[in-house]
Amino acid sequence: MKIVKNLSILCASVVLLAACSSTPVAPVTPPPPPVVQAPAVQPSPASPAPAAESKVQSVVIPPYLDPKNPLSTDRSVYFDYDIFSIKPEFNQLLERHGKFLAVNPQLSIRVEGNADERGSAEYNLALGQKRAESVVRALKVYGVKDAQLEAVSWGKEKPKAAGHDEAAWAQNRRVDLGYPNK
Q: How far is CA 1 from CA 5, 6, 116, in A?
């Protein structure tokens, strides 16, 4: 008897739940506005159709920030061991930067001298400064003003390559031309 009672409660529940199911109401959308067609005008063959003006503003990237420009990609001068004279292979790089800076007198850069890890801190700072000053002198040949150049030395504090071999040391004996970021 208890089973019949439970079964009847279960059937009643199923009937009630089935009766409560509802169908979703479709949202009411307003009718679309009437389409009004303008009379077709055909352009005369003598006059071409006017070009649409672009509303996009063009962005001008300075050459020293353009990743495709050599002023942006070639900014290091490398030196031999314990030497601060510029190798002839870097004359074209310095000429390019010198001429660019000469025609852009509002632009100033930092000329950063570096050395490898060998030698004392004082010696490397002095050598980095001599390397930076030799690059500054080379840039002045092309008309760059003193106010546009700042020579600094990092000594061995900012290595480009990690390692304790000639390949790493050769990468760290350099002068970097530091242009502004904007």
A: 6, 9, 98
Say if residues 100 and 148 touch (Cβ distance below 8 Å): no
**What are the φ and ψ backbone dihedral angles of 169, each rounded to 5 degrees?**
-65, -40
User: Running DSSP on this structure, what letter comes out for residue 148?
Assistant: G
The answer to whether the CB of 161 falls within 8 A of the CB of 172 is yes
pLDDT, tens digit, 9 for 90 and up, residues 10-69: 555 555 555 555 555 566 566 666 655 655 555 555 555 566 777 888 888 899 998 899
Tell me, what CATH number does 124's domain have? 3.30.1330.60
Report CA-CA distances (Å) from 32 to 25, 29, 36, 103.
20, 9, 12, 62
* Strand (E) or helix (H) holding 98: helix 91-103
* Measured distance CA(131)–CA(111) in Å, rounded: 9
| Domain housing 138 | 86-178
Q: Three-state SS for 81?
A: coil
